[in-house]
Write a structure and sequence with these properties.
Blueprint: E1 15-19, E2 26-27, E3 30-31, H1 35-49, E4 53-57, H2 72-82, E5 87-89, H3 95-102, E6 109-112, H4 127-131, H5 134-139, E7 145-148, H6 159-167, E8 170-172, H7 174-183, H8 185-188, E9 195-199, H9 204-214, E10 220-223, H10 225-234, H11 250-267, E11 271-272, E12 276-280, E13 286-290, E14 303-304, H12 306-317, E15 321-325, H13 338-349, E16 353-357, H14 359-367, E17 377-378, H15 383-389, H16 395-405
Helix pairs in contact: 1-2, 6-16, 9-11, 12-13
Bound molecules: adenosine-5'-diphosphate and 1,3-bisphosphoglyceric acid.
Length: 406
């Protein structure tokens, strides 16, 4: 069980400052609706229904990047999910923000401007230093409690995540609670049968590090995606290289070659690699080739093949727990979704404990009509999920735990 207090422990009629993670894809300047809104809406609705005055903080993008925008559009999307008005003020802790906070009535909800527009939010520093910033020292006295629901940002030591829990009584929101429990299961729970990890996607450096760190806590790794191709390359197959205008493979190969070879050396029996791969044939349709028949990589491989899925399915059915990190193919293109969807369907059909993580990969669930209810947990975290899997501490969770001990 987590060692932090939750919103069940909040005193009645509190003024609560709540940190969410609404960081979203931005298209034409507008935030796109996604699972983060839906999940955080549950915490916000519960707090508002209980009669608390609810002030929300969140970030969007990083300064200097295209996705660094105001949260005005986020307030509207969140309001739709909460089923209540979510007021917005284009200020983080200045006079306009303080006036809006003071004017809030019981059960009302206000979203403050992108926390990263405030100089004190970034860069990373210790909780003690962040608690002494003007941002925290100005806002904290207006509140009775701080709630952190932003599990997916909990690996960052930013003021809104680690500073406020030192200045106020601090609690975990519902998203924080459920993400924490599911994502640490691999490190904290005992499973009776085999534990399997499906490893794919494009961020090979991240997932190979996870494989190395998890070591024998996972009984078998089923590989696909870019990471899988790099492992095939290490096993002596002429794949896992950039072709044409690609730049997904060679650099990640150079950076991970030794680690891949050492994982294969030490855990080779636990690592299952694709036996066939799919690519775009001359007619534009999906074509497949057995890995043993590949003499030279001439085209981009965009999915694992049907024989690989048939090989992975029984391994999933025999498992007591399955954790997914990364897609097995470019599932956004229907022609190359079979690997990812086949494996997700196999997981959905079993009653094993299952967690699907990664913002991109978890989108395959709704895209292909799978039900989220058929998985134990679909995480809305990327980087924090990876760290939780390997047992690496999350600074924003640590300060919540420390707050509960005070
Ligand atoms: N062979 C491949 N070549 C290129 N992209 C791939 C391949 N296999 C999977 N992908 C891509 O990987 C993405 C998902 O993985 P990634 O972005 O690493 O993970 P996350 O789910 O954590 O966001 C998908 O968008 C998919 O298109
Ligand atoms: O979306 C996020 O992380 P993720 O892409 O790892 O899930 C979080 O909001 C953290 O954002 P950041 O990586 O800009 O600090």
């Amino acid at each position: 069980m987590p060692a932090f207090d939750t919103i069940d422990d909040l005193p009645a009629d509190s003024r609560v400052l709540v940190r969410l993670d609404l960081n979203s894809p931005i298209e034409d300047g507008d935030p796109q609706d996604n699972r983060r809104f839906e999940r955080h809406a549950e915490t916000v609705r519960e707090l508002a229904d209980a009669g608390h005055r609810v002030v929300l903080m969140a970030h969007q993008g990083r300064p200097g990047r295209d996705d660094f925008t105001s949260l005005a559009g986020h307030a509207d999307i969140l309001a739709d999910h909460v089923g209540r008005d979510v007021a917005f003020v284009a200020d983080t802790y200045g006079e306009a923000a303080l006036d809006a906070i003071d004017a809030l009535g019981p059960g009302e909800v206000l979203l403050l401007e992108n926390t990263r527009m405030c100089d004190d939010e970034l860069p990373e520093a210790s909780p003690e230093e962040k608690a002494e910033t003007e941002f925290v020292e100005t806002l904290a006295p207006r509140f009775d409690a701080y709630v952190n629901d932003a599990y997916s940002a909990a690996h960052r030591k930013h003021a809104s995540l680690v500073g406020f829990p030192l200045a106020l009584p601090a609690y975990a929101g519902r998203v924080m609670e459920t993400e924490y429990e599911a994502n640490t299961a691999i490190a904290t729970r005992e499973f009776d049968g085999p534990v399997t990890m499906v490893v794919g996607g494009t961020k090979a450096t991240d997932v190979i590090g996870v494989m190395d760190a998890l070591d024998d806590r996972v009984d078998r790794f089923l590989l696909g995606g870019v990471a899988g191709e790099l492992f095939l390359r290490a096993a002596g197959h002429p794949v896992g290289r950039d072709v044409g205008e690609m730049d997904l493979f060679d650099e990640q190969w150079e950076g991970n070659r030794e680690l891949i070879e050492s994982v294969l050396d030490e855990r080779g029996d636990a690592v299952r690699l694709a036996s066939d791969l799919a690519y775009e044939g001359a007619d534009g349709d999906r074509a497949e080739v057995a890995v043993d028949d590949i003499e030279e990589k001439r085209e981009a491989f965009l999915d694992v093949g049907a024989a690989t899925v048939a090989d992975y399915e029984p391994a999933i059915r025999e498992s007591d727990a399955v954790f997914v990190k990364g897609a097995l193919g470019v599932f956004e293109d229907e022609r190359f979704a079979d690997g990812t969807v086949g494996v997700l369907e196999a997981i959905a059909e079993t009653d094993c404990f299952s967690v699907v993580g990664g913002g991109d990969t978890s989108r395959a669930i709704e895209m292909y009509g799978l039900s989220e209810d058929d998985f134990s947990h679909v995480s809305i975290a990327g980087g924090a999920y990876i760290r939780a899997l390997t047992g690496e501490p999350l600074p924003a969770v640590e300060v919540l735990e420390a707050a509960a001990d005070r």
